[in-house]
Each structure stands twice: as structure tokens, then as C-alpha cells.
Amino acid sequence: MGVADPRILEGAALAVFLLDDDGKIVGALGDAQALTGLDDDRLIGCAPAEVLHARPAGVNHRQIEERIARGHGAAPAALVAVDLAEHARSDAVLREHEREMRLMFRQVPVATWATDRDLRITHWLGRVERRLGIPEPSIVGMTVQQFARTPDPADPAVRYHVAALHGESTSFRYQLRDSWYEVHVDPLRDEAGNIIGCVAAALDVSERLAAEHRLIASEALLAQSQSLAHVGSWKWDFARGEMTWTDELYRIFGVDRATFTPSYQALCDRILPVDLPRFERTVSAALHGPEPCALEHGIVRPDGARRVLNTNVIVIVDDAKRPVKMIGASLDLTEWSDTKASLERSVSLLEATFESTADGILVVDVDGKVIAYNRRFSTLWNLPEALVDQRDDDALLAYVLEQLEDPDAFLRGVRGLYTRREVESLETLHFKDGRVFERYSRPQRVDGKVVGRVWSFRDVSDRDRLLRHAVFLADAGRLLTTLDADQALESVAHLAVPALGDASAIDLIEHGVVRRVAAAARRPSARRPSEPSAQVLAGASNVHDSDGASEIEVPILAVGRVVGTLTILAEAPRRFVRDDLELVEEVARRCAVAIENTRLYRAARDQVRAREEFLAVASHEIRGPVASIRLAVQALAKQLAPADKLINVIAREERRLTRLVDELLDLGRMQGGKLQFVFEPVDLAALVREVAARMGADLARCGSQLAIHTVGITLGTWDRLRLEQAITNLLSNAIKFGIGKPIEIRIVGREHNVVFEITDHGMGIRRDMQASIFEPFERAVPARHYGGLGLGLYIVRTIVTGMGGTISIRSEEGKGSTFTIELPVGAPP
Amino acid sequence: MSTSDCRLVLVVDDDQDLREMLALVLQGHGYRTQEAVDGVDALEQIEAGAQPSLVLLDLRMPRMNGTELLLALKDRERTTIPVVVITGDLGGAREALAAGARTCVRKPIDMDALLDTVAQHAS
Q1: Same CATH fold, A675-824 and A6-204?
Q2: DSSP at A143
């Protein structure tokens, strides 16, 4: 019939029987059972009269007031029966009952009415008028149009009443003044079946509609929120063996509602196999325990894609505590899980970075309490683990301060930063052991608020050392670019302190004697570097500890020879490292260059002076004979002396000139390396005698006696003329410097060589001059003039060595000199 | 060659030949000569009492050279013995003049120029 819940009439001692065209009951509303003693099923198909009069025993005495809504001349369409038994017993009771009934009718949201063929309402029962604001008695007599307040024939109420007059039954939903009604209109017939009007019932369904709308809205909301939250749920009804899924769950599982039939097995089939045992355990736990269970598990979609779900399982039990339903709500964590994984990766990356960075990092809160630090931090500061674990910044600070060169400055900096929370700062820390840190500090902020401070420490010792070394090398290089090494070495020794160490020393080796030429110390009390070790004097640099100090010793090598040493000392805890050694070696190399440059410069300068001196001597030597010759010639012209005497002078001076010119030519040849030798057998003793004989006059003039001793065979293969020249030079030197004292010559023939020795007892040569007398332009007494060009010994040495021999000198100042020549008897190859 | 018989010239030169030639020339022109082989020798002779009218001095000599002798003479007793330097070296000549030499005779020596100079400066 479409009319809503039949229970609304229960207990009202009232029943409405709906009848078909034959007057048989097709349905009943209200207390039909109480009135008839029959249940609904047995009523269907019966005539109302039968059931109402065939009352069961308990209701026999009851009077039934029947009101039958009939159409004009048609069969009744509905019959309302009211048990009036109570009324029959007492009017009061009856009236009361009627009142109650009417009240009850007013309470229930239902109304019934009948109309005549003009659609004028002839009967009314119900409460609708309260809403309409029309008193009940006035409804009867109104037309349907008046009641509905519309003349419109298309209005459903008017139209379906008209339709009922034409025999149609219609159920429809109708809105009347803010309320919704389910309305059913039937034709009302008289006994002859002619339609005499309409009978209708209406039920106020406003509440239900509102509830329906609310339900629809809440279901939509549920679906929407499930979709938004990525929550899908399933409900497993054990009794029905049926599982239902929400739309979102279909979406989460990537299955189509049209083709997928949810079941527990189908659910399990889609759970990631590794997670399935856990899932089943959770379901089982939920079945056995009162608490909801949850787990995170993976699922696999038909396309193979994986999702991560968090599923909560709850079991619903009946009054007997038997599980009847299980509900699972699955939250799709996939995106969140991706985010979480990425977050975890970020955190792990940060942690790895925190740990693997070369910087030591310490994080403290605003009170200076240690919040975090990395391993590098404790390594850099050599912190014992126990100390760091205490997380006591005061203890840490004390430990740290001990290691610093200037702890007070550091402390001031740290305290200052605790009071000025916003400040960032960068500072360089110098350690007692020579390390250098860069300390960077900045506030740690959370949402812009300072919650602590991050300290990062970087060991920049290498960089600092490189920089210091570079600066030192540049300075040292500049100082050492000089031709005055002594001054430069002094400066470098001072530059090395404190750039390289606490004390420095430079020792030079001159003529086998070690002499400290420069030294510097950081403090007067500082230890001084020790004397150069045998190791460094042998040319090996080394780093060693000596009495708690670290010392670097480096040789200064010039042309592969150790000419000095450079020593740098560092007091503990500073210690030298390989880089330091390399630097000191580099400095030593530059020192060597400076020393060598100075030596070369001085040698060149001396050589230039020697050449100038040589030229002065040479011109003097040449002018002497020329002056003599000119005077002799002029004297000859004026006959101032006997001609033969003057001619002798001229001849002798001419020979002197010739000899000088020869010597100059020899010098040119020797310096150009073009001296040629012609080897032939020569008896040295015989040759010496010849020379002595030729120089007899010179010997006589100087007054020296010459003694010649010969031992053994003195034959050899030599260049006769050159050898004669050498002996002449040596003899003439002996004459010149012998100051009239005896001169001895010894010639000793041996197996492989012949030794020639010439000794005078004259002025002798100072020890320090002896090495240079064989050099050209050198003289034992450079500022003095002894006649001749001063090339004699140079020529002698060149000749002797050119023939494979050697020459040496023994001399003592004031006692004379001995020159010794050893000549191999065979010609050189 | 006539009025200067008494004048003594001390010839100081380590070059024996030149020394002898100078002495020979001076003697030929009426001077008495005395010879010294170097500055030390000359100084010793003067200290021994020699009173030359003029010293004819070579600059390059062993032991004590010309300039040193000049300084020694000046130092010793403010001697007024005129000294004439014989040299071919202009630098040496300047040094000698600064040390007190009267003048300088250049090498190679022109006999007439030498005699003029000696005559002019011999006290």
C-alpha cells in the first residue's frame, strides 16, 4: 500500500482494513490482531464482517464500531474498526477511550479521510490539521482543493482524487506546508460498486524523509571522507558469510565493484605474502580478544603495484559475546609511507652527514647543556668518551681549555656568545700542539626562536700550516735573494721563530770547522738547538726528539756538499710533522742557493779585482823594461856610460819583455785549454842542471846558493820545453822569495814516477794563502809586488797536471817553502 | 852637471835594471845616488842617517810599496825630503800625490823630463 510503518497504529485498539474491489481484506493496519484474534496472514482474503464477527472467545463481548469508507455506490475501499467494548461498559469509559483514541490519533502522524464525488471531505480522522492550523471539525465539509489550498487541477492531490473518482488507486508523495506525506487515494464505492467518492490515508513522512536525507548525506560524507582519508573498510558478517567493501576500499585495492566479489579469501589473496601470516594472526587475535587489533601490511594490486595499509580489525559480538561481525578499516599509508621512507632517508642522510663530516659538531641548548655531538668532535678535541657522556659543558670546557695556546681569549669568546644568543661568530683557535682549528658558532633556531647553539670545529692545521709555510717561504725567499748570505741567514733564523718552531740555528762548515752563524729563540729561556749531528753533517735530514723537544735537522747542500745545517726546535707539545721537514728542507735549499750565490759573487768579484790587479801588474812589468830600454838608449845617445854596458841592459830588458809576452801568450792558451804538449824522453836531472846554469847570473845577483841532489834514474817521457819552463818558474820564485838563503833541489827517480822538490828558506807562505797560489792572478801577497806577472805557479801547475803529474806545497811563514812535483815516467794516454 | 855635485838622490825601485839605469843617468848628470830595493830598505837607509835631496820612488814594490813609504815618511818626522814618484799608473800616481809626493814622472821615462823634474825638486 505504500503507507509507512504499520506499527504506528499498534496498541490503539483500532484497525484499518484495506479492502479490494470484492470487499476482501488485502491488508491491515493497527491492532487488527487484537480486534480479530487473527494474525495478518489469516486476515488476507477475508471479508471484514467475517473476521470481526467470528471473534475469538476472549473478544466476543466486544462491540466493534465499524466505519466503512465507501465510494458512491461502490464497494468499501477501507474499513476502520474500533473496539468499543470499553465504551459499552461505561459511557465515561467510552468517552475517555474515544478521547484517548482521538488523542492517540493526534499523536500518530496519520490521517484518513473520505470525500464525496465532489471531492468534499465527508470523514476525517487524524492529526494533520494541527500542522495545518485547521480545527478538525472544519475539515469535514471542505473540498480537497480547499484543503490543499489550490484550485490547480494538475496538483497531485487534486489530480489523484479525481483519478480515484475514475477508479484509479494512486500512491504518491505530497508536500503540504513544509511537511511531506505518503498519500494513498482509492475510489470509494457503494455496495453496487459505483464510485461514490474517494477514501484516502496520509502518513507524515517528513521525519523519515529528513532521516533518509540525513542517511544519504552521511553515507555520501562517509564515502567522501573515506576517499579523502584513504580509508576503506570491509564488513564481514559471519552469520551471512558475506563481506562488503566500501568504495574507497575497492579503489585502494584497485579492483572493480562490478567484477570483484569481496570475501575473506579474496582479501587474503591480495595481501603481500610476507605479511599474510601476520595479518591472519591479527585477525585471529581480534576474534579472541576484546581489544581492536591493528597491523601494517602490504597489498598487491592486480596491476602489480604495491600499497601499504594500516588495518584496524574490530569484532562485534552479540549479547552472548559471540562474534557476529568483523569490521576492518584500512588506511592507505602508501604515500605517507613513501613520505616516511623519504623522511627516514633524509634523517639517515643527515645522521650520516653529521657523523661523516670533517667538522666536529657540538650542539648545546640555551643553558649550555650538551644536546648532541658527533664522533669527529670528540676526536678533534681528544675527548675521553666518559667525559663527553657526562654531557657537562663545564667539564668539557675545562678539558678543552687545557689544550689551547690562549685559553682566556677562547673563554671570553664562549661566554660572550652565551650572552648574545643571536650572534654568529668565527674564530681561529691555536693549540699548544701546533694544531689550528676554525671555530664557527651560530644559534640553533626552531621556528625562528633560538633554542641553542651549534658549534662546529674544523681542523685547519694543514691549511694554516700551508699558508704559514707559504708566507714563510716567500719571506725567506725574499731575504735569501741576496749576495750577502751572512746577513740573510741571520734574518732567516729569526724568521723561523715562531713561524716554524721555538728556536732555530744555522751552522756553516768552513774548512771542516762547524760554526754557528745565526740563531734565534722565542724566549730567552727557550732551549737552543743542539750541535749538528753526525747524521746531518753526512747530508741526511732528520726529525728527532731530544729531551722532550722535537728537532728538525736539515743539511744545507751546495753543489752536493754539506756547507752547513739548519736546525729548528719545537718544545712539547708541539711536534714536527713530515710537512715541516719538507719546508725546512726547502728553506735549506734556498739558504744553499744564497750561500752559493754569495760565494760565486765574491769569487767573481775577487776574480775581477784579480784581473784588474793583474792588468796593473802586467803593465807595470812591461813598463819597467821599456823604461830601462828608453833610458839606456838615451844614455847611449848622450854617451853617459860605456856603450857595451848599456847594450847589455837593452838586451837583458828585451829578454824580459819577451818572457813577459810569452807568459801572457801561455796564459791565454792555458785559459783557453789549448796548451799543447810534445812528448819526448827527457832526463829531468840534466834539465834542472841546464836551467840552473842559465839562471846562474840571477842566482849570483840574489846571493842564494843552489844545491842539487839526484837519486835514482830520473828519465821520463815529457814535454822538454814545458818542463824547462816549469822548473825555471819554480827556481826563479825560489830566488825571488828566498831572500838570499840557500836553495835545495832534490830529484828522486822511482819505479813509476820522478819526484822533483825545490826548497827555499825565505819568507814562506801563510797557510790560508797556500791553496790559492796556484790560481791565476793570485799572489801569496796580493797587495805587494814581487816582480813578474804572478802567473808562475799557475803555469807550473798547468804544465805538471797536463803531463799527468801533481804539484803540492809545504810552507811555513818566515821559514821557507817546499814545492814538490811528481811526474809519471810514462807519457799520459 | 856642475852645481849639483853634492845632491844625493835616493832611487827606490825593486826593478834592479831600472834602478841601475836611473842611477846611471843621474850620476851622468852630476848627482850622487843611493839605491834601495823597496820601501823598507829606503826607510832603513833614511833612518840610518841618509839625507837625500830627493827620493825617486817606484810605487809597486814588495814588503813596503811607494805609497806606504810616503805615509811612513810623513808620519815619522814631518820630513821635508821631496819625493818624486815614477809610475805608469795614473791611479797610483794620484794616491801617491795625496800621500805627499811632490810630483810624478810617467813611465816610460824621458831622460830630459826626468832630469828637469829632479833638478826642480831636489832641495
Answers
A1: no
A2: B
β partners of residue B55: B10, B83
Could you tell me the three cell numbers for A41? Answer: 496472514
Q: Is there a contact between A627 and B107 if contact means CB atoms under 8 Å apart?
A: yes
State the greatest distance between any 2 C-alpha atoms of chain A, in Å, as a whole number: 213
Cα dihedral sign for A578, A581, A583, A585? negative
The pLDDT > 70 percentage for chain A reads 86
In a domain, B53, yes or no: yes
Cβ contact, residue pair A631, B111, below 8 Å: yes
Residue B110: give the domain boundaries. Answer: 8-121
DSSP string covering A395-445, please?
HHHHHHHTTBS-HHHHHHHHHHHHH-TT--EEEEEEBTTS-EEEEEEEEEE
Q: How confident is the model at residue A781 (pLDDT cuts 50, 70, 90)?
A: very low
pLDDT-derived band of residue A224, with 50, 70 and 90 as boundaries? low
- CB-based contact, B12 to chain A, within 8 Å: no
In the predicted model, residues of chain B with pLDDT beneath 50 are 1-4
Chain A residues in contact with B65 by the CB 8 A cut-off are: 783-785
| Domain ranges across chain A | 6-204, 211-339, 357-459, 675-824
Residue A758 confidence (pLDDT): 96
Domain annotation covers residue B39: yes
Q: Does B15 touch chain A (CB under 8 A)?
A: yes
Give the tens place of pLDDT for each residue, A296-348: 899 999 998 888 888 888 888 888 888 888 888 888 888 777 777 777 888 88
As a whole number of angstroms, the distance between CA A805 and CA A810 comes to 17
For domain A675-824, give its CATH number from 1.10.10.10, 3.60.110.10, 2.40.110.20, 3.30.565.10: 3.30.565.10
Size of interface A-B (CB pairs under 8 A): 84
- Asked, for residue B3, whether it belongs to a domain, the answer is no
Quick check: A787 pLDDT over 80? no
CATH fold for the domain made of A6-204? Beta-Lactamase (3.30.450)
Write out chain A residues lying below 8 Å of B109, CB-based: 627, 630-631
User: Which residues from chain A sit within 8 angstroms of residue B22, using beta carbons?
Assistant: 631
Judge whether residue A388 has pLDDT over 80: no
Nearest CB to B109: which of A617, A620, A627? Answer: A627
CATH of the domain at B18: 3.40.50.2300
Pairwise CB contact (< 8 Å): A784 & B65:
yes
Q: Give yes or no for a contact between B95 and A783, defined as CB atoms under 8 angstroms apart.
A: no
**B111:A634 CB<8 A:** yes
* CATH class in words for A357-459: alpha beta
Instruction: Give the residue among A820, A827, A825 at the shortest CA–CA distance from A747.
Output: A820
Subunit contact A640:B28, Cβ cutoff 8 A? yes
B21 to A631: CB separation less than 8 angstroms, yes or no = yes
pLDDT digits (tens, 9 = 90+) for A39-52: 777 777 887 777 77
pLDDT digits (tens, 9 = 90+) for A415-428: 887 778 788 888 88
CB A584 within 8 A of CB A554: yes
Residue B2 lies in a domain: no
- CATH number of this structure's domain A211-339: 3.30.450.20
The number of distinct structural domains making up chain B is 1
Q: How far is A698 from chain B (nearest CA, A)?
A: 11
A181 bridge partner residues? A174, A204
